[in-house]
C-alpha cells in the first residue's frame, strides 16, 4: 500500500501517566478501525460519544473512552480523523496502541506525519506547520505568542503576497518573450521596476530585524567569561536558582560548558558557564578554554567577571568624599581581544572590600559591583540582563523571521531582485530578467512550500487574453 494512503495512529498527548491521554488516527481506514475497536458504527462527526474499546483479536476490554470523529476534509489533516480520549494510565495507552497495530491498513505514524499530511492536503503552509512545533516547544509567553501569530498564517500571508507579486511580474515578462506577435503593452519589463523596487525594499526591511525572531524562538545566549575562580559557577547557580554547576575554591574546577535555560520577563535565555580563561595546564583544560572562547564569539550577551579587589582602586576608604575608581586596564589577554562596549562587566567578591559600591555604577551603564556569596548587587544585574534580553527579542515587526531556513531563502530572493534592478535598462536581456524574477519567486515559495509553475501560465492567459 502507498504510504500516503495508509491510515496512521499515534499518541497525540504527552508520554507518561496522566488523567487523560489522546490517541489520534488519520486516513481512509480510520472509520473501519473505529468500528473494529468499538463494535459499533462511528458516532456522527464532531459529537463526543462514550464507547468501550475492545482488542480487535482477543476481544478483551481495553478502556471506556470518549470518541470524536472529524470527517474529511474538515479535520486537522484534511483526511478522516478519529480521536480516542483514554484514561491516561500507561497500561491503558499501551494496550490501545497495540490493539490498533493489529488492524489491517493501520500503522504507527512517523514523526510529524500528521502535520505533513495537513500540509499535503492544503490545510496549512510550511510556516504554519513549523509554528505548530514551535507552539508545542514554547517555554515562555513571548515564544507562545510568536508561534500563535505564525500558526494563524500571519507570516505565510506576507510571503505568499511577495510570491504572487513576483509570479505576476514573471508572467508578464514571459508573455512579452513568448508571444511577440500578440497585441501586448509596450515596455512591459520597464513598467515592472517600481513594484520590484518596493518589493526589494520590503524584503530587505524584513531581513534587517537583527535576528530578533530567531532569538525569540531559540533563546538569547548569555555567556559568563573570566579567569578561573572569579565566581562564574556561583553566579550561574545564583541567577538560575539551581545547583547546576560545581562550585569550588580550586581554580579550574569548570572544564566544560554548562548551560541552564531561563525565563527573563517572559523571554527565553540560555545562561552559559564556561571554563576559566588562562594559560591551560593540560589538554583537557585547553579544550575547555577553546570551547569557552568559541561560545564567547557566538554569544548574544557576554558577561565578563573580574575580581573586585584587583580593579577597584582605593577600596572606598572615604566613600563620602570620593567615588570609587575602576581600573579595567589589566584584563586577561583573551578577554581584551573579545571585549567590546556591549559587554557587561561584573566586579565580583566585593564583600572583601571595606566599603563596596554595590550595584550598577553611576555613569557606567554596563558595569556592576556584586558579591555572589553575600547576594549583593545580584538583583540589579538580573534586572539589567532581563531588559537586555527583552531588547534583543522584542519583535518590532510582527510577524518576524523565525528560522534560518526562511532567512536564507529571502536572501536568495533579495540577491535575484538586486541583480534584476542593477541591470542596464537599455541593454537588459528580457530572458535574463525573467530568470531573475523566476528564481526570486521560487526562493520565496520555498518558505511556504508554494512552488507552482502552472500558476504562471494561468496568470499569462488570464491577464493578457492571449489567443483571444
From TrEMBL:
Binding site for GTP: 229-234, 248-254, 273-276, 348-351
EC identifiers of the protein: 3.6.-.-
Domain annotation TrmE-type G: ranges: 219-390
Gene Ontology cellular-component annotations: cytoplasm
Compartments (UniProt record): Cytoplasm
Cleavable signal peptide: none
Residues given in the record as (6S)-5-formyl-5,6,7,8-tetrahydrofolate binding sites: 24, 83, 123, 468
Single GO molecular function: GTP binding
Record-level GO BP terms: tRNA methylation; tRNA wobble uridine modification
Superkingdom of source: Bacteria
Chief location of this protein within or outside the cell: cytoplasm
HAMAP family (alphabetical): GTPase_MnmE
Family recorded in the similarity comment: Belongs to the TRAFAC class TrmE-Era-EngA-EngB-Septin-like GTPase superfamily. TrmE GTPase family.
NCBIfam families tied to this protein: mnmE_trmE_thdF, PRK05291.1-3, small_GTP
Subunit structure, as described in the record: Homodimer. Heterotetramer of two MnmE and two MnmG subunits.
UniProt-recorded name of the protein: tRNA modification GTPase MnmE
Organism: Iodidimonas nitroreducens
Gene: mnmE
Amino acid at each position: 500500500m502507498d504510504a500516503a494512503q495508509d491510515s496512521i495512529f499515534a499518541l497525540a498527548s504527552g508520554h507518561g501517566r496522566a488523567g487523560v491521554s489522546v490517541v489520534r488516527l488519520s486516513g481512509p481506514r480510520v472509520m473501519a478501525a473505529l468500528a473494529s475497536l468499538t463494535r459499533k458504527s462511528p458516532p456522527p462527526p464532531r459529537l463526543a460519544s462514550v464507547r468501550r474499546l475492545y482488542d480487535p483479536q482477543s476481544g478483551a476490554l481495553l478502556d471506556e473512552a470518549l470518541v470524536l470523529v472529524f470527517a474529511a476534509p474538515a479535520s486537522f489533516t484534511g483526511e478522516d480523523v478519529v480521536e480516542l480520549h483514554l484514561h491516561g494510565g500507561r497500561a491503558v495507552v499501551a494496550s490501545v496502541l497495540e490493539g490498533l497495530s493489529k488492524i489491517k491498513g493501520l500503522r504507527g505514524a512517523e514523526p510529524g506525519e500528521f502535520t505533513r499530511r495537513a500540509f499535503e492536503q492544503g490545510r496549512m503552509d510550511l510556516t504554519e506547520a513549523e509554528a505548530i512545533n514551535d507552539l508545542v516547544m514554547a517555554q515562555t509567553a513571548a515564544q507562545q505568542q510568536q508561534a500563535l501569530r505564525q500558526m494563524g498564517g500571519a507570516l505565510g500571508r506576507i510571503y505568499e503576497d511577495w510570491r504572487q507579486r513576483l509570479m505576476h511580474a514573471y508572467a508578464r515578462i514571459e508573455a512579452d518573450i513568448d508571444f511577440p506577435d500578440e497585441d501586448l503593452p509596450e515596455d512591459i519589463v520597464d513598467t515592472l521596476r517600481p513594484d520590484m523596487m518596493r518589493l526589494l525594499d520590503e524584503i530587505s526591511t524584513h531581513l534587517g530585524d537583527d535576528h530578533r525572531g530567531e532569538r525569540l524562538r531559540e533563546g538569547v545566549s548569555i555567556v559568563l567569561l573570566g579567569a578561573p575562580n572569579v565566581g562564574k559557577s556561583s553566579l550561574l547557580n545564583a541567577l538560575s536558582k539551581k545547583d547546576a554547576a560545581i562550585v569550588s575554591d580550586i581554580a579550574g574546577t569548570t572544564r566544560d560548558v554548562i548551560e541552564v535555560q531561563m525565563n527573563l520577563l517572559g523571554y527565553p535565555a540560555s545562561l552559559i558557564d564556561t571554563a576559566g580563561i588562562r594559560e591551560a595546564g593540560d589538554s583537557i583544560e585547553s579544550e575547555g578554554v577553546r570551547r569557552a572562547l568559541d561560545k564567547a564569539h557566538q554569544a548574544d550577551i557576554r558577561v565578563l567577571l573580574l575580581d573586585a579587589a584587583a580593579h577597584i582602586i582605593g577600596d572606598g576608604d572615604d566613600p563620602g568624599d570620593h567615588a570609587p575608581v575602576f581600573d579595567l586596564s589589566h584584563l586577561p589577554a583573551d578577554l581584551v581581544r573579545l571585549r567590546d562596549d556591549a559587554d557587561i562587566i561584573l566586579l565580583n567578591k566585593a564583600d572583601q572590600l571595606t566599603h563596596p559600591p554595590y550595584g550598577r555604577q553611576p555613569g557606567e551603564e554596563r558595569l556592576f559591583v556584586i558579591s555572589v556569596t553575600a547576594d549583593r548587587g545580584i538583583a540589579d544585574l538580573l534586572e539589567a540582563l532581563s531588559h537586555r534580553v527583552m531588547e534583543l527579542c522584542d519583535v518590532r515587526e510582527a510577524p518576524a523571521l523565525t528560522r534560518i531556513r526562511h532567512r536564507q531563502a529571502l536572501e536568495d530572493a533579495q540577491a535575484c531582485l538586486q541583480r534584476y534592478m542593477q541591470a542596464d535598462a537599455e541593454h537588459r536581456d528580457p530572458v535574463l530578467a525573467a530568470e531573475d524574477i523566476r528564481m526570486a519567486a521560487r526562493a520565496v515559495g520555498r518558505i511556504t512550500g508554494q512552488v507552482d509553475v502552472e500558476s504562471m501560465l494561468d496568470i499569462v492567459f488570464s491577464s493578457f487574453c492571449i489567443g483571444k
